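Weekly puzzle thread! Below is a chain. First person to post its structure in token form gets bragging rights.
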Amino acid sequence: MKSLATILLIITCTNAFTGSICKRRILHQQPSINTRLQSSSSSSSASSSSSNSSDKSSRLPPPPSTFREAEVAGLRLMQDGRHEEALKAFQKAMSLPGSRPDILRTANVPGPSPVGGSTGGTQDRFVQNLDEFEFQAAHYNVACAHACLGNVGDAVNNLQKAFEYGFDNFATVRADPDLGSLEGTREFEALMKKW
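Winning reply:
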């Protein structure tokens, strides 16, 4: 699993940041998630002696609210060998806010334009979408989880999507122990030959 964390660091570092800034950003984000999980578990263990078993939901960490939080949770689950739960976390991550800011135009508005010169305007809202590096990491991680579960077709399909988003570290794909079950399969070899 160590190689997967390295991949995520490499992918993120290529995203218009220098390597040192990227490392600080990742190291800064992970402790906040760790701290949140630790404080959640320590507060739940303190309260578990006074609460009954029907109060288990209050002891669970809060659900992830960003791509990065869900990705880190999925990586932890992979390290613990909980591949089905990791797969769900990685899939959930793809529907959460990412690091790319964007504006969605939601409606045309009649009346004077807010910028002048013409009539009408638009209403919009600010959103955070996944960037291409997050899509690469997401599909790569989903592929690893599928491979660990023995789902060769789904693993290869997600690897192909990671490649289409620009992932090109093919040596890592060949060396990743999470993808070891794909080695020698017809689908995997055809994909690797194509790329």
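Puzzle host: Confirmed. Bonus trivia for everyone else. The CA atoms of residues 135 and 165 lie 7 Å apart.
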